[in-house]
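Hello K.,

You asked for the raw outputs rather than the summary table, so here they are, unedited. I folded two proteins back to back in the same session to keep the settings identical. This is the first:
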Amino acid sequence: MKFQFEPNPPYDFALTADSTRYYSVLHQVHEGRLWHGLRLGEARVLVAVSGNPDADAPRLEAEVIASEGAVDERQLETKLRRWLDVDEDLRPFYLHGAQDDALAITIRRLHGLRMLRTQTVFEALMITMIEQQIALSAAQKAERWLVSTYGDAIVHDGRRYPLFPTPETLASLPEEALHPLKITFMRMRRLQAVARAIAEGFDLEGLVNVPHEDAYRVLMQLNGVGHWTAAWTMIRAMGAYTYVGSADVALRAAVGHYWHGKPQKATRQETDDLFSGYGSHGGLASVYTLMRWGIERYASLGADGS
């Protein structure tokens, strides 16, 4: 089973696939393709995606390599389009950013970069909560442990392709089972509180179908979720680029470097003022800035997050 897509240009598949290592531990890149396991109800699907090198005339091919259970072809196609961010149009952001010298350099550097979406809002929220106030390498080590210990997986040609644990799985665990995450006990309890709420009927996944401001409001009402966590959850799960915010120290460091040419972090006020000046494009501008900062400083980040 194969699917052909022609995303809205620009779309740099190679850059997009390689950059997933900075925000997801569930993607694998080998043989020139991006590999990922997907859930469709009770079914499991392993997909390998390839793309042509022309970011301004992009074409993608997604091939089902292995599957377990009955696969609804139409449902899978919809899921692939959403995951691969096929329909997003970056051109208005690019045109707006071209008017600012520093942002224009970032856009040229990352021309055609897409942020691939998580399979569920739950996955996006869990990994973002794990990443609160923690180094990327430590966070991804914790995430790899979580998915390898409690997630499902598809095994193909000796490789294991993990899927994120379900809310029901995490909700059923005793608190001490999460101690190897090496995050605060309070944060572990908050992760499980969300999982248990979903297991008991809270419709977190329904947030993809409501206006973004309503989804943000619901997320902000959850214990342990502040603006940064809500914003990154919506970016990861919904492609909704709410401004990440000046509480992100890496963003402040990037602003200090790219806009002010200084080693010191920009102040919170300077950072907020800068991205608010981009209006509705401020959120995407902040994400592109963070992705450039990560790529240029952590280019050697390996498959194990080190």
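The second followed immediately with the same parameters:
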Amino acid sequence: MRLSVKTPAKINLGLWILGKREDGFHELETLFQMVSLYDTLEFNTECDGLRLTCNRSDIPTDETNLVLRAGRRLQQQFPERQNLHCQIHLEKTIPSGAGLGGGSGNAAGTLMALNQLWDLGLTLEQLLPLAAELGSDVPFFLVGPSAIGKGRGELLTPIEPSRQFFVLLLTPRLSVSTAEVYNHLNLKLTSPQNNIKILSKIFSKSDVASLGAHLHNDLEPIVLERFKEVRVVWEYLQTQNALGVLVSGSGSTVFGIFSDSRQAKQAQAQSVAGNWDTFLTETVASVAEFLPESVLNYPKADRA
């Protein structure tokens, strides 16, 4: 059997770091939003073994890639099954190491696709903890398009999407290490007031202008200080009439939000001369926009 699945990028409209956990991770609260920039995964079960290829030579295709790790995790879940084979091809468009969750989305897409192709019968409730094992952001891509994330980001509360608005993504051609950024985080300098409730309320009202004024990221000062290429992009976007500008997650992508398509396209046209990759996207209103219905048709959880 063959199946093609698109997996989106995400941005963090708000990110507050609340403290260090005993397991070494950080406690956080964030507002996730999917945007219309996609990778594509092609699955073919008419093969032997589990293999991954990619259109980009700089993307690993071994066990360090979350796509392959997601497939292996499902194989481990069903050790009695001998027919769990698949050839997977990843067509990569989302920049890696850019704070856009490309790898996490790929992992979630793999879990959903192989759950169908291998006829595993896992419910969404059963897939979510497997996703959390793979990475903090992976569960979001199972439940998006918009959600509040707590804990490491894996404890999710889906929320109603805002009306769609435009998001201009500018990604300098460098990879930012999330671990490095967190290692330089001074919790005494993070926002003393947690405004996730304020941000989510503004989001739910589809007040894009006010949303832009309330964008927040506790990691942004570190990224801007340590990576001058990101600061150049951030300063450039500040001149482009965006309603708000923010570093996404731990970087390196900087995004600007717009409610007016003309201004968004103008900002994109003027940005292409820069030493960065440019993507004009929209917020995703429903995962049904990019995922086949068969993948979303999970078995019902047994409530008995």
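The two ends are 34 Å apart (CA to CA).

Happy to rerun anything if the numbers look odd on your end.

Regards,
P.
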